[in-house]
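Quick note —
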Amino acid sequence: MEPTTQPLAPATFYILFALAGGEKHGYAIMRDARAASDSAFDLGPATLYTTIQRLLDAGWIEEAASPEGADSRRRYYGLTTSGNGVLQTELKRMEAIVKRSKALRLRPVRSAS
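Predicted structure written out below.
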C-alpha cells in the first residue's frame, strides 16, 4: 500500500505515531495514543488490534522480536519504512494545515473546563 494523501483515521495515525518512538506492545501503544492526544482519543483494545491487523496487512508495521526479559505473551510491533513514509506524509499534511490556519489567524477554541 502506498502512502496516502488523505487524512489517516485517528487509530491509524496514533498507532503509527506511537511506533515512531520505537517498538511497543499493544498496551504501550494505547497509553502513548492517549498521551499524544492529551487524553482526547482513547484507543480501545478492539479498535487497537483490528487496526494493527490492517496495518500489518498493509505492510506499514511489522511484528518485532520481544525485548530480552519481556513478557513472552506480549506481541511487539514496529514501524516499517513504508509506515514511516505514511506517517511523514500525514505529518506534512498536518503541518501545512497549521501553517495555513496561522496565516488566516485561526486559533483553536479552548473549552471551558
